[in-house]
Amino acid sequence: MQLWQLDIVGGVFLADGTECKVVTGVDDHSRFAVLARVVERASGRAVCGAFADALREFGVPDEVLTDNGKQFTGRFSSGRAAAEVLFERICRENGIERRLTAPSSPTTTGKIERFHGSLRREFLDGNSGFADVAAAQEALDGWRSYYNEVRPHQALDMATPASRFFARQAPMKVEAAGPVLPARLEVLTGVGTADVSGEPAVPGRELPSAWRSSAPVVDAVEVDRVVPPSGNLWLCGQQFWFGPALAGRPVTLWVDVHRVHVLIGGARHKTLPSKLTGRDLRALLASGRARPAGPAPVDCGDAVAVGAVEVDRTVNAVGLVGLANGKANVGWAFAGRRVTLRLDGVVMHVMDDARTPLATLPCPLSAAACGRLQGARPAGPVPVPRTPGPVVAERAVSSSGGFMVAGQRVQLGRQHARTVVQVSVDDAELRVFHAGDLVATIPRTTTRPVRVRKSGEWTDRRSS
Question: What residues contact residue 321 under an 8 Å CB cut-off, 6+ apart?
Fold first, then answer.
């Protein structure tokens, strides 16, 4: 409560294309977001109204640090003498020391700028087209609660800002019970002050009254979404990766504060830890983007006790995936792909998003260790291998009219010399096509696989 950093950031868009601003503020010591208010215009009155609400909620800080925006200072106002703006008057009358950055020095307010980076990446990039300012504020309140109460902060040794922040119960520099505000300031209320939180208070600190609610607790919600072209879907700041291959597919997210079950076509696709809070669930219901959920698709604990499990992993550049505290080799051919691994302690099946088997390998972990994998869920049925069809290969016919395929010599005749033919190879016969026409059907006499499928240069060299 010694120093607050305040600023204004844009990027909140309404459904009609209007861009709104967000008045932001963080406590310098704890990184606690004391202010995140959506306003249609970042006028001096709107900024001061948001600032006044923060003073009422958390008490009066000793100092505030801002840039040189005209909402915060009259330092660069036109005229002979700098005029005192409304924000400066509020600070003066409440004994708050004003600090300004040097012109063109954004690093001075580095902590609020870092907060803006998280706000853009975790909230603004995944949310757009709000119905109105109230809907945008409601969604922002949910993210702000997550940022303060749940999200660990690297600069705080992975503690949450709420664990380091203590609101000042009474202003120290004024004798009134609350902040001193000019009579002409019409405080903006009713936007973002309604609480949608069902979260417990942080031990050792009572949550501000504006965060409490008498509304019933929401256990779980279901949200219908469509996978975007990038394959990267966001919900209330949590990322869900599907991959471009599933772009355009409708999905259902069954969400509570512990788990997120992802359903495609009514079947469970995967289960992930939830980063959403009770506040987020209420905000989703209030915005109409979610509905009360039915029973959970599966009952997943932190570890799967019995049977086979499935996990989703991304294959690195050399064909390895992370399992437990080590690496497992699934093959460099799958480098960069997102795959599903089905492990039962004996066999590891590698599958794609459609559960098509890609490879079958020995399981590198015991059954007990498989159940403790991060993101493990009860496995579906064993994937059924695809029925192999004919293998089609190209061959360049030599000057003598012959070629080799699957270890078998085929003689077409000199009339086909120096042409390229397509050969359909199955277990019983070879079917040779040229320019789409069937040229010959020959019984197969070998069991060797087709090793080369494309023809080479025009040479008399035999290929297999």
Answer: 313, 314, 315, 327, 328, 330, 339, 341
* Residue 137 structure tokens: 């504020």
Cβ neighbours of 335 (radius 10 Å) = 14
The mean pLDDT value of the chain amounts to: 78
Residue 133 is encoded by which pair of tokens? Answer: 């300012």
3-class SS of residue 91: helix
Query: Under a CB-based contact definition with an 8 Å cutoff, are residues 8 and 71 in contact?
Result: yes
Adjacent-strand bridge partners of 39: 21
Other CB atoms within 10 A of residue 274 CB: 21
CA distance 464 to 461: 10
Task: Flag whether the pTM goes above 0.90.
Answer: no
Look up residue 173 and give its DSSP letter.
Answer: S
Structure tokens at 10: 């844009």
pLDDT of amino acid 168:
58
DSSP-assigned letter for residue 394:
E
Alpha helices in 296-386 (DSSP H): 367-371
Q: What is the largest CA-CA distance in the chain?
A: 108
Locate 15 and state its tokens: 């459904």
432 sits in the region (left: phi over 0; alpha: psi -120 to 50; else beta) called beta
Of the pLDDT bands very low, low, confident and very high (cuts 50, 70, 90), residue 8 is very high
Give pLDDT, residue 177: 45
Decide: 64 and 108 in contact? Cβ < 8 Å. Answer: no
Q: How many angstroms separate the CA atoms of 288 and 127, rounded?
A: 14
Say if residue 461 is exposed, middle or buried (CB neighbours under 10 Å; 0-12, 13-18, 19+): exposed
Q: CA–CA separation, 311 vs 315, rounded Å?
A: 12
How high is the pLDDT of residue 208?
40
Cα distance between the two ends of the chain: 78
- Cα angle, residue 352 at apex, residues 254 and 251 outer, rounded to 5°: 25
Distance of CA 425 to the CA centre of its chain: 46
- Using DSSP's 3-state secondary structure scheme, residue 66 falls into strand
Say how many C-beta atoms besides its own lie within 10 A of residue 44's C-beta.
Answer: 16
**Do residues 234 and 240 touch, judged by C-beta distance below 8 A?**
yes
277, 145 Cβ separation under 8 angstroms: yes
Q: Are 278 and 260 in contact (CB under 8 A)?
A: no
State mean pLDDT over 6-32.
88
pLDDT for res 23: 94
Closest CA to 66 of 51, 78, 77: 51
